[in-house]
Design goal:
Helix 3 packs across helix 4, helix 7 packs across helix 12 and helix 10 packs across helix 13. The strands form three sheets. This protein has a six-stranded parallel beta sheet, with helices on both faces. Strands 3-4-5-6 form a four-stranded parallel beta sheet. By secondary structure, it is of the alpha/beta class. Strand 8, helix 8 and strand 9 form a beta-alpha-beta unit. Helix content is 43%, strand content 14%.
């Protein structure tokens, strides 16, 4: 949403933004970019009558041609409220791999059935929606997420210095799905194999204390650094030899694309969006599995390639993402979807949207 707000002038459409509960850190950034942003301050848990009521009033106030909702709570309340407000075109968007209960699957099948289409941020997310039978394949549009395109950073020297450690980086929420525990296991295995490696972890989450205890128990206190949340993680990680994404599940992988845009060689588990972003051995490296041993094997193999080869992979990675995942490309993809959906709506109803 921040990137969309910052690049909204590139769109043929006028964009307004609304958060159901709170705006968080994104609110100030979007306001500073000149975006029209409203925070309703309503409870967002499904179902919320207050959210539905406030959203309906808000949408009627602006009378938009299109409402595009993002995320589970926004999809549920926003799509229903948009129909109450008689919005011509509605689009819901899944922003990750859905993990819905049987009851939630039924609810979203009904809600998505009221929409003119569903947006998925990757083919993996699209396939998950189809598997859950929440929407028909032909009604799902893949629009790849945008990411910040970072400047390249100076790579570390390729000197054959036995005392120079192989530096690894990871950025993400410290939650179970990000699989940082297996990453720590992998670093211990890498150390025991004779490869000197260090790991910089950027991010916070409910598992941080457990992960710090795990690192201590594995004897990694001098090899692993926890930096906490950072506004710009690649100010620290940009000079790593290898960026790692060890996720158990990943709808897209924005941090992965940002790392690639900075010219970093990347190593990722073969899940979700990573398999659509990385071509193994060309613009990145894919692991065989998500467990600690598989991650360790990948790190050891990457270190054996040498810094010169990793730098080549990193530069190929940068070239592969610069236009594909740029905010400008995202804006134009949305415009094409909005135009085509409005045209279909006019043709179907015989009226102007």
């Amino acid at each position: 949403m921040i990137l969309l707000a910052q690049h909204a002038e590139e769109s043929d459409f006028e964009h307004t933004f609304c958060a159901i509960h709170s705006g968080g850190a994104a609110f100030a950034k979007m306001k500073n970019s000149g975006a029209n942003v409203t925070v309703l301050g309503e409870p967002a848990s499904i179902p919320s009558i207050r959210a539905l009521s406030s959203l309906t009033r808000h949408i009627r106030k602006y009378s938009p041609d299109i409402v595009h909702t993002h995320g589970a709570e926004a999809n549920f309340h926003g799509l229903i409220a948009s129909r109450f407000a008689k919005v011509p075109v509605t689009l819901g968007e899944e922003i990750g791999i859905p993990r819905h209960s049987p009851a939630a699957r039924i609810a979203f099948r009904i809600v998505y059935g009221t929409a003119d289409g569903v947006v998925a941020i990757s083919n993996s997310v699209k396939n998950a929606i189809v598997t859950l039978q929440e929407a028909n394949r032909e009604d799902i549009h893949v629009v790849l997420n945008p990411a910040r395109m970072l400047d390249t950073v100076t790579r570390r020297s390729s000197l054959k210095n036995a005392n120079q450690s192989f530096r690894l980086g990871f950025a993400g929420r410290l939650e179970e799905v990000k699989n940082a525990s297996s990453l720590l296991d992998a670093i211990a295995i890498v150390r025991d194999s004779g490869v000197q490696a260090t790991l910089d972890i950027v991010g916070n989450g409910s598992q941080r204390a457990l992960l710090e205890k795990q690192a201590l128990a594995l004897g990694l206190s001098k090899s692993v650094a926890f930096h906490g949340f950072m506004e710009d993680p690649f100010s620290t990680l940009g000079s790593c030899d290898l960026y790692i994404q060890p996720s158990l599940s990943e709808g897209f992988g924005i941090a992965l694309v940002e790392a690639m845009s900075a010219g970093l060689a990347t190593l990722a588990t073969p899940v979700g969006g990573a398999t659509e972003i990385i071509e193994h051995g060309i613009n990145g490296l894919l692991l065989e599995d998500v467990d600690g041993q598989s991650i360790a094997n990948g790190v050891i193999a990457a270190a054996a390639l040498g810094r010169d080869e990793l730098a080549r992979i990193g530069q190929t990675a940068r070239a592969s993402v610069l236009s594909r995942f740029s905010p400008t490309n995202y804006i134009h993809s949305l415009d094409r979807l909005y135009d085509s959906t409005l045209t279909e709506r006019r043709n179907r109803t015989g009226t102007a949207a």
